[in-house]
Specification:
The chain has 201 residues and is an alpha+beta fold. It contains 6 helices and 8 strands. Strands 1-2-3-4-8-7 form a 6-stranded mixed beta sheet. A two-stranded antiparallel ribbon has the order 5-6. Helix 1 packs antiparallel against helix 2.
């Protein structure tokens, strides 16, 4: 009920302007694309009998991807994200959404493996100590993910919804011993989202 009242108020304000006829389409598109203030929404997608979910955090302009215990492949992650975004934003635009949390990337094995492999190749990572040669592990991992475009396939999905995505922040990096040394394999990763040039949000 509250959502219908909010939508009605927004549309009413749109209709009051002198350019009412030109603005109706834009207002209706905005209402379809963005959830009402304070509303939390959730969509789920099944992968091999396991559930991947995407949550819109109500008044916060961020999304949370929850792979659960699915351990999805890259193709499964990409398809799940596309379907979930389409369910939450059927108008094809993310509105004011400014971030997407991937959660702990150990739940996305393809991204965890890419990170570990990239760290071993990076001259700035000391595989003996399991730390970057300079700076914090969080900063190093964020820059590595960004520069190597290790989540580029997810950025492509988001681009179809009018958003440019890049690695934003990284928290709580974890390191483990492998045959070739100690490498980062897990962290909480956020994507920062901005409107693509020419795209209406």
């Amino acid at each position: 009920m509250a959502r219908r009242l909010a939508a009605g108020a927004a549309l009413g304000a749109c209709l009051e302007g002198a350019l009412c006829g030109l603005l109706v389409g834009a207002c209706c598109g905005l209402l379809a694309a963005a959830p009402a203030a304070g509303e939390e929404r959730r969509a789920a997608f099944a992968v091999r009998g396991c559930e991947i979910a995407l949550e819109a955090r109500g008044s916060e302009p961020v999304l949370q991807l929850r792979p659960g215990r699915c351990a999805p492949s890259l193709a499964e992650t990409r398809e799940a994200l596309r379907v979930l975004l389409d369910r939450l934003y059927p108008a094809g635009r993310l509105g004011a959404v400014a971030g997407l949390s991937l959660g702990r990337i150990e739940s996305l094995p393809w991204l965890s493996e890419r990170l570990a492999a990239a760290a071993l190749r990076a001259p700035g990572w000391d595989a003996r100590s399991g730390r970057p040669r300079a700076g914090s592990p969080e900063r190093f991992v964020a820059e590595l993910l960004r520069e190597q475009r290790l989540a580029a396939e997810l950025a492509t999905v988001l681009a179809a919804f009018g958003a440019e995505a890049e690695i934003g922040s990284v928290e709580k990096v974890l390191v483990r011993e492998q045959r070739d040394g100690r490498v980062p394999y897990d962290a909480i990763v956020w994507l920062r989202l901005e409107a693509a040039p020419g795209a209406e949000r």
